[in-house]
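Quick start: read one record
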Amino acid sequence: MVSVGTIIWLSSELMFFAALFAAYFTIRAVSPDLWAQEVEKLNIPFSTANTVILVLSSFACQWGVFAAERGQVGRGGPIWKFWGGRSGWGLREWFILTYVMGAVFIGGQALEYAELIHHGVTIPSSAYGTMFYLTTGFHGLHVTGGLIAFLFVLGRTYLARRFTHEQAVTAIVVSYYWHFVDVVWIGLFATIYLIK
């Protein structure tokens, strides 16, 4: 039931981001010259690297889910041995790595915002600034929510005496959300940074 509820909730989130995409394309169609001028200020190589970090975090998250499904909450061997079933990393290690990568992504977004503000791209400066910060800002809030969810899952695994099926379901549901956030970012990245 939790998984079904999460999927329904994520569908409503999809509609929210669809509305942001629609607003972005509508305002972009009205003022294409402004878009051409403002897009030149974006640091595409930096944003690409930041995107790769977020996409890789989704893989780390999924490997954590695989560990949760086999009931492995912690690593079974040395820290440098990632793979190997029960002798490799468990849910905690993969989710901690996912958390760190997500936090690096948010830090990268903050650096990008600071650079754009330095170049005069702000929310009140133009329609481009408004749409850029609305779309990427709401996505950043969703990533931050995912990071909080990872802390919740990790905290439960450290406080519980044993790893239960309910904890595994919680990890799986959090992974649904994280994958959703990653897919939305890929769409935003393509829309904002790549489509001319």
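The chain has a mean pLDDT of 87.
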